[in-house]
Amino acid sequence: MGFKNTQTYNRTWEARQIWGAILNSSRAFGTMSRDFLNNPAKTKELVYRHFAWLTALRYAMRDSRSWETASKSYNNEYKKYYNIPERETTLEEELAKYISTDELKYILTTKNRAAQLMSLQSKTTKQLFADKEIDNYQFVEMQKAIKDFYDQQGKSERIKNFPYPRQFATINSFFIKLFCILLPFGMLKEFDKLNDGMRGFMQGNMVWLVIPFSVLISWVYTSLEQVGESTENPFEGSANDVPISQMSRTIEIDMREMLGEADLPPALQPKNNIIL
Is 237 in contact with 274 (CB distance < 8 Å)? Predict the structure, then answer.
C-alpha cells in the first residue's frame, strides 16, 4: 500500500509540475508575441490561439477513461460539491471565443485538437519570418516555445492515457481485503490474554473488543487504499484533480493583461473549497 500511494502521488505531482511549466512558458510566449512583433493584430492572433490550445488540451484531459474512478459510487456523491467547467460548456463554444470560424471548423474535424492548434501557431510564426516581421533569432525562440508546449502536452497526455498499472492496483486491493478479513482472527489470541489480568464484568469478555478494533484498523487501511486510488488519475474530474481549469484561466488573465486589455475574465473561485 505504501508503494502504491507513493507512486500515485508521484503521478499527481508530476501532472502539477507539467501544468506549472505550461503556465510559466505561456507567460514567456505572451511576452515574446508582444515584444517581437510590431503587428498588434498578429500578436493578438497568436495569444488568442494559445488560449484555444489551452482550452483544447484541458478538455482532452477531462475526457473520461474506462479505468478512472471519479464515477464510482463512493466518489459520485461528492460531485454536487464542486463544478467541472469542461462539463458545463462544449469545446466548440469555448474555442469560438478565441479563433476564427474557418479555423474552428478545421480544428473540430481533427483528432488531436490541441496538437493541430499548436501546428497552426508554427505556421503563423513561419509566415511572420517569411514576411520579415520577425528576425531569425526571434523565429527560433518562438519555435522553441512551440516545441516546449508540444513536450508539455505530450507529458500531460502520457499521464492521462496510461493508467497506474492494473497489476499493482489489483493485487494491492486484494491484499487489503484479505488483511481485513483475517485481522480479527489474528487479534483473538492477543485479546484473550488480557482476560488474565481483568476482574469484574470484562473478565472473560475481552475478546469482544476484537470487533471494534478490527473495524477501526480495517477502516484505516481501506481509507489509505482509497486515498491512493483517488490520486491515480489527476485529470479525471474528481475533487483531487490538478486544477487545470483554474490555471488556464490564470494564464488567460495574465496574457490578456500583456495585451493591455481591461475587460478580463474573472478568476475561477473555489466551490466548497474545491477548485478544478
Answer: no
pLDDT in tens, 152-198: 999 999 999 998 777 777 787 888 889 888 888 888 888 877 777 66
Cell triple for residue 59?
A: 478538455
Where are the chain's structural domains?
2-164+237-258, 167-221
pTM score, whole prediction? 0.87
| Residues making up the chain, counted from first to last | 276
Residue 215 in grid coordinates:
473495524
List pLDDT tens digits, range 235-271. Answer: 988 888 999 999 999 999 999 999 999 999 999 999 9
Alpha carbon 23 to chain centroid distance? 14
Question: For residue 81, what pLDDT is reported?
Answer: 87
Burial class, 155, CB count within 10 angstroms (exposed 0-12 / middle 13-18 / buried 19+): middle
The cell for 42 is 498578429
Dist. CA 244–CA 55, nearest whole Å: 10
Joined grid coordinates for residue 144: 522553441
| Residue with grid cell 464510482, as numbered in its chain | 72
**Main-chain dihedrals φ then ψ at residue 207, nearest 5 degrees:** -60, -25
Write down the pLDDT at residue 198: 65
CA dist 40 → 34, 43, 249, 258 (Å): 8, 5, 22, 12
Three-class SS of residue 102? Answer: helix
CB count within 10 Å of CB 13 equals 13
